[in-house]
Write a structure and sequence with these properties.
By secondary structure, the protein is an alpha+beta fold. The chain contains 2 helices and 8 strands. The chain has one domain. Strand 5 and strand 6 form a beta hairpin.
């Protein structure tokens, strides 16, 4: 049997409602330069990014909790190939466990020289301490903040 391949190009633009929880979350980042999580009413875990319902207990979350700005790197990747609608490479992206949170949030890393992947990987090692930084002109989305290695 011959296995076929097909090249397809997808270029989709869509607009979707974020809902109450994500809307409030991004408004706080935009207006107050603060990341918040939501507390799971049953387990007490602080979920970041926030969810209306716990992924573990399926109970509603019930309290907004400020987290960070300090955190530690949980995982990372360095991207050297271009992808539509993402930053020009190279760039680093990963997940950070912010102080006061029980789940990690994704974001970009800035301030690391990415030309030499091995050296950059050592700087972005799991467990490395980072600090959250905020854009001067925030619009209420994931590009409003990033992480830098703490000195």
């Amino acid at each position: 049997m011959e296995l076929l391949t097909r090249t397809e190009k997808w270029n989709i633009t869509y607009r979707h409602a974020l809902g109450e929880t994500a809307s409030w979350f991004y408004t706080q980042i935009r207006d107050k330069q603060q990341i918040y999580g939501r507390r799971d009413s049953k387990s007490g875990r602080v979920l970041v990014p926030p969810r209306a319902f716990s992924d573990e207990t399926l109970e509603p979350t019930n309290e907004w909790v400020p987290v960070g700005p300090e955190g530690t790197i949980e995982c990372f990747t360095i991207v050297y190939e271009a992808f539509n609608n993402l930053p020009d490479p190279p760039y680093a992206f990963g997940y950070v466990l912010l102080k006061g949170a029980d789940t990690a949030i994704g974001g970009y890393f800035k301030g690391v020289d990415l030309k030499d992947g091995a050296t950059a990987a050592k700087q972005l090692a799991i467990g490395t301490k980072v600090i959250t930084k905020f854009a001067e002109n925030r619009v209420g989305d994931v590009s409003d903040f990033w992480f830098e290695i703490q000195a």
